[in-house]
Amino acid sequence: xxxxxxxxxxxxxxxxxxxxxxxxxxxxxxxxxxxxxxxxxxxxxxxxxxxxxxxxxxxxxxxxxxxxxxxxxxxxxxxxxxxxxxxxxxxxxxxxxxxxxxxxxxxxxxxxxxxxxxxxxxxxxxxxxxxxxxxxxxxxxxxxxxxxxxxxxxxxxxxxxxxxxxxxxxxxxxxxxxxxxxxxxxxxxxxxxxxxxxxxxxxxxxxxxxxxxxxxxxxxxxxxxxxxxxxxxxxxxxxxxxxxxxxxxxxxxxxxxxxxxxxxxxxxxxxxxxxxxxxxxxxxxxxxxxxxxxxxxxxxxxxxxxxxxxxxxxxxxxxxxxxxxxxxxxxxxxxxxxxxxxxxxxxxxxxxxxxxxxxxxxxxxxxxxxxxxxxxxxxxxxxxxxxxxxxxxxxxxxxxxxxxxxxxxxxxxxxxxxxxxxxxxxxxxxxxxxxxxxxxxxxxxxxxxxxxxxxxxxxxxxxxxxxxxxxxx
Length: 473
Fold this sequence. Notes:
Blueprint: E1 4-8, E2 10-11, E3 49-55, H1 66-78, E4 82-87, E5 92-97, H2 99-105, E6 111-116, E7 119-121, E8 134-135, H3 152-156, H4 159-163, E9 173-178, E10 198-199, H5 213-221, E11 236-241, E12 248-250, H6 251-260, E13 275-278, E14 282-285, H7 289-307, E15 311-315, E16 328-331, E17 338-344, E18 368-371, E19 386-389, E20 408-412, H8 414-431, H9 438-447, H10 455-458, H11 465-468
């Protein structure tokens, strides 16, 4: 999530920047399709919407059998519905149909609930824009990144100290569930695994980021150390596009992306995903019946992928609310098996562990904090924000200079805070022997965080990457 941006178009004499093209815009799994029957032709002209269908599961949450899904597909076809996605592993279908067909479907004994899908603005639209120009020389050591002096955030969480004590996340794959990641930026070139990257936004490719959010998050996790340093410089990245160029997306698309990372890489014998960063979120009414259905579908996807070894890290939100309030819920941050991250930020380069005014708080909804930057005070300076890469494919007004693939921006929000924690998880996973479970990684991050005042609000505290290397194997 972003609240403030400041671009740095950078002039750099580098050659051989490769423009990568791939078929990432195609969905990785072809959903089971059911053609409408002749009996349903009369309803074809009626208004249709996408609905999320939850099937009943056993007490242990076992997958719904293929026979039940096939039977339901046939029933939906007779009602004039079209199955857009079918997730038998979690008992969820996404179906385009009429309200009348949805009402009939609710009567089936194997259906738990049906709710209309919602498109949500997962990234706040507020932002501030300014420009400046800097030049730097080419190299690749994170200690020598040209703009490292601006990156107070890495020093605060001792990520720079951890570089020398670890293998910097080597061999770990982190997927960015966001607006896409553009690999043409010099600090991301060569890092994006295009075989695993996938788009769940029908009209946009996973390796293009027209919004600029996903690319900036990716660069905080892992970068080439040219203009900027990152938490896990040797980690690999994948892009799972679940949000469009406006930063919005449906519950169905986000849910599909969450479930995808649970098996991504295993299908073709490629390395599985170990960390998934979700720098996105929305605060919703906790007692809305339809919201409960949509959240339950998303929770099933998180449970599935967590069981397959993926740690989910999410931004807690930029609404400035206390999530101890039971009437509201921040999604996906407050789902089970998701590590929720709030933001800290300095005021005129002082008081670096100040909880940012925009950050959601509350022990019930925020697990740990990480640097997100601050800009709400009159004496805030540019350096109080977070430096990140700017997407070459962005179409955001005021960011035209980013097209050169050499530009950087300053931003603030719980989004960059979450991305740095995802990088920390990669460093821990690579440093400790064997494969750590998501629960192991989360526990290590939490128990090695530096305490902050008022634990009822700040919970475990602000993360410390160097301290996390001391977690027992």
